[in-house]
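Subject: Sanity check before I submit

Could someone independently write out the structure tokens for this chain? I want to compare against mine line by line before I put it in a report. The sequence has 120 residues.
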Amino acid sequence: MNIGVENRKAVRYPLSANVVFTWEEERGIHQKAEGITRDISLKGVFVYSVVSPPEKAPIRMEVDLPPLREGASPVHIHVQGRVVRIERDVSDPVHSGFAVASESTILRGGEVDGTEEEDR
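---
Independent answer below. Compare away.
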């Protein structure tokens, strides 16, 4: 048992940003919900949300950030991944949420001249 040992392979950065996420239910019904990120890394994202996709569900997310400097376009982070953990706190539903392991992360925007950057 590794109590207090951090097993993560990427540095997590605290980030509070709006996120819209979509997933498909078992019956093929597409779902869409919103939340706020708690933290983000190259390997994943944790999202606070009253609504959570089921564990192991494939998910697509778009995190929207304001422009990082004056005159620049807003930044959009597109994440495709899988729900790996759900945290429910019935006494504090605002801090309930879920963790996503990223399979693909694309960063767009943020450039003054309108060009886009991409990182996979």
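---
OP: Matches mine. For the report I'm noting this point. The chain has one domain: 13-109.
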